């Protein structure tokens, strides 16, 4: 009997010792990712905001995200002046791209510059939607001085993020996770930020479903951090069925791109309304030579209570006055601008457009 009691006591001690060590071991603790917002939660958030209207913004002095955010070329003066142009026509929000390499080479400096940008924008009454990853344009990148624009070539220096690097060096995923979580943790309760656009046009540049693993991971990382702002990724190509379905199922509010005519845009809105009861925000539109204009599209977005972010504010080094597929190699000005609203001195490309925008935003001259 004593032997049985001894063995039983020994077993209990071993179990107790093992359990205590498990509790004290932080390596077994797991971060729980929150659920995707319900339609009710999304709509409760949306009604707290005025009609969101603005542009995709990069200062005219920057050719790409690195030139915007690196210490030597962060141009607060130009940012301040050009966001003033935006405020003058009643815009109240901007969509702005980040780049992980700017964080990697200088995390604290990068975050300080983000804060500086947010302070400037807020002073103009402008909120910010930040974009984390991007599958568009140039596949590789380097820190330091960025190239000069190629004459007449649309977005000749724009950078993907992470681009081809993730396929060349899959181990960089650890660094990308640290980047995303650091930015979302640092600014996750910042009232100046309206939304996190986690991945711009995943699957573009021929990547297709190769982009799915990173798209899935960035949503998981975002929900683990659980910022107060919503998380989203814009539907942009119905041909990428798996990616589009994932974006719709995992976005807290629904964002999308449309560069088609008014009829095409309305059709996309109608389709999205059948797929979701969540608020809609158009994060890219307005390509004049493709019949996506302020005149025929912005009134629809206002009447439908859909957030409206056109591509481009001030014509500059990104060369987005030139169309995607129509280069003008001598660099002369196109007869019809593809994107953008203002010249560098604040003169509008079209006074009629600016008058329309002011009428829709309620901004007097």
From TrEMBL:
One GO MF term, please?
hydrolase activity, hydrolyzing O-glycosyl compounds
Cite the InterPro entries for this sequence. Answer: GH, Glyco_hydro_2_cat
Please give a single GO biological process term from the UniProt record. Answer: carbohydrate metabolic process
List, alphabetically, the Gene3D superfamilies matched. Answer: Glycosidases
Where the record annotates domain Glycoside hydrolase family 2 catalytic, the positions are 179-293
Entry superkingdom? Bacteria
Which named protein is this? Answer: Glycoside hydrolase family 2 catalytic domain-containing protein
């Amino acid at each position: 009997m004593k032997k049985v009691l001894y063995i039983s006591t020994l077993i209990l001690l071993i179990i107790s010792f093992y359990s205590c060590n498990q509790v004290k071991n932080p390596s077994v603790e797991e971060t729980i990712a929150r659920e995707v917002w319900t339609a009710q939660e999304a709509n409760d958030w949306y009604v707290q905001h005025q009609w969101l209207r603005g542009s995709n913004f990069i200062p005219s002095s920057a050719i790409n995200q690195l030139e915007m955010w690196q210490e030597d070329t962060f141009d607060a003066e130009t940012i301040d002046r050009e966001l003033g142009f935006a405020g003058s026509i009643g815009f109240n929000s901007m969509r702005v791209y980040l780049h992980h390499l700017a964080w990697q080479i200088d995390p604290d400096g990068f975050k300080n510059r983000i804060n500086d940008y947010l302070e400037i924008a807020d002073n103009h009454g402008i909120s910010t939607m930040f974009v984390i990853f991007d599958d568009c344009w140039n596949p590789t990148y380097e820190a330091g001085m960025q190239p000069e624009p190629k004459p007449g070539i649309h977005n000749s220096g724009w950078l993907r993020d992470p681009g081809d690097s993730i396929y060349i060096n899959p181990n960089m995923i650890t660094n990308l996770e640290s980047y995303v979580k650091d930015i979302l943790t640092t600014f996750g309760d910042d009232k100046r930020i309206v939304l996190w656009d986690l991945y711009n046009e995943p699957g573009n540049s021929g990547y297709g479903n190769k982009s799915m693993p990173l798209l899935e991971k960035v949503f998981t990382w975002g929900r683990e951090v659980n910022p107060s702002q919503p998380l989203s990724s814009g539907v942009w190509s119905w041909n990428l069925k798996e990616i589009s379905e994932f974006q719709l199922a995992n976005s807290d509010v629904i964002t999308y791109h449309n560069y088609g005519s008014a009829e095409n845009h309305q059709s996309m809105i109608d389709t999205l309304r059948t797929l979701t009861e969540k608020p809609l925000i158009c994060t890219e539109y307005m390509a004049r030579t493709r019949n996506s204009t302020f005149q025929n599209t912005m009134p629809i977005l206002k009447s439908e209570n859909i957030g409206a972010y056109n591509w481009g504010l001030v014509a500059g080094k990104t060369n987005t006055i030139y169309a995607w597929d129509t280069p003008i190699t001598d660099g002369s000005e196109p007869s019809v601008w593809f994107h953008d609203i203002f010249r560098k001195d604040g003169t509008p490309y079209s006074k009629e457009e600016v008058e329309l925008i002011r009428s829709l935003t309620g901004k007097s001259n």
